């Protein structure tokens, strides 16, 4: 099963099964994203966990994902007129004009993308000057300890293909592609800072 097929399968239970990373990221995004009337692109939108929230701050929002089944769940939840969902593979050239968006968000998807430099280059092209690129990812410290995206199938637990991206890699991809880093935060289960952080969030601002 490749990543796309895995998310098609996972879509049935993605929202309902306990998932601390999914939930802490929802909290982090809501605390990190500010502003109003934003032309927004949500990449790897999945079942729309964050789409409803982002929509309230958006002039228009495009939710993009390569899993048709995850997108179906999102479409069933969010029917606002300013939201459009599109099937799109983030590893291919993004089919949007230059300077189209004020905000791009990407939650828990980049661990499945090997070449994040490509994603930053595309984001830089389609964001307006001063536009923000929010990223929320499983913290690489968790990955070093072996944590991976995984879900229960009828025949056992399936682990998805994941790539480790060190914090320095995000920094380098951002600065190389005309971004400043405007925020970097680490999020801990139960706010317990004696533990390994679960989530890393970063906001890059296009120069
Ligand atoms: C862990 S889910 C996160 C979904 C949602 N952002 C959230 O936080 O709940 C990862 C999502 O990224 C999508 N994804 C992974 N690789 C992708 C790619 N190459 N192109 C587009 N979407 C991708 C998957 O289909 C899935 O919906």
Question: What is the percent of helical residues?
Answer: 25-40%
Q: What distance separates the N and C termini?
A: 40 Å
The count of helical stretches stands at 7
Strand order of the largest sheet: 3-2-1-4-5-9-8
How would you sum up the major sheet? 7 strands, mixed
Our estimate of the beta-strand percent is 25-35%
Reported by name, the CATH topology is: Rossmann fold
Helices and strands, in N-to-C order?
HHEHEHEEHEHEEHEE
- Which CATH C-level class is it? Alpha Beta
Integer average pLDDT = 96
State the CATH architecture.
Answer: 3-Layer(aba) Sandwich
Structural class: alpha/beta
CATH superfamily: Vaccinia Virus protein VP39
Rounded to an integer, what's the Rg over CA atoms?
A: 16 Å
Q: What is the approximate shape?
A: globular
Bound molecules: S-adenosylmethionine
Number of strands: 9
Number of domains: 1
Which spans of ≥5 residues are poorly predicted at pLDDT below 50? none
């Amino acid at each position: 099963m490749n990543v796309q097929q895995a998310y098609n399968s996972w879509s049935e239970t993605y929202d309902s099964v306990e998932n601390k990373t999914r939930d802490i990221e929802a909290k982090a995004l809501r605390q990190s994203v500010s502003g109003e009337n934003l032309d927004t692109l949500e990449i790897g939108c999945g079942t729309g966990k964050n789409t409803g929230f982002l929509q309230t701050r958006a002039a228009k929002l495009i939710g993009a994902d390569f899993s048709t089944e995850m997108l179906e769940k999102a479409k069933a939840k969010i029917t606002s007129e300013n939201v459009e969902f599109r099937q799109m593979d983030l590893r291919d050239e993004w089919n949007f004009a230059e300077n189209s968006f004020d905000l791009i968000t990407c939650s828990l998807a980049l661990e499945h993308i090997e070449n994040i430099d490509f994603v930053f280059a595309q984001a830089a092209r389609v964001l307006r000057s001063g536009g923000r690129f929010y990223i929320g990812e499983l913290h690489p410290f968790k990955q070093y300890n072996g944590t991976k995206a995984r879900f229960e199938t009828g025949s056992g637990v399936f682990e998805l293909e994941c790539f480790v991206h060190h914090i320095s890699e995000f920094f380098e991809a951002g600065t190389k592609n005309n971004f400043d880093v405007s925020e970097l935060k680490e999020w801990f289960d139960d706010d317990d800072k004696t533990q390994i952080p679960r989530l890393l969030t970063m906001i890059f601002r296009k120069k």
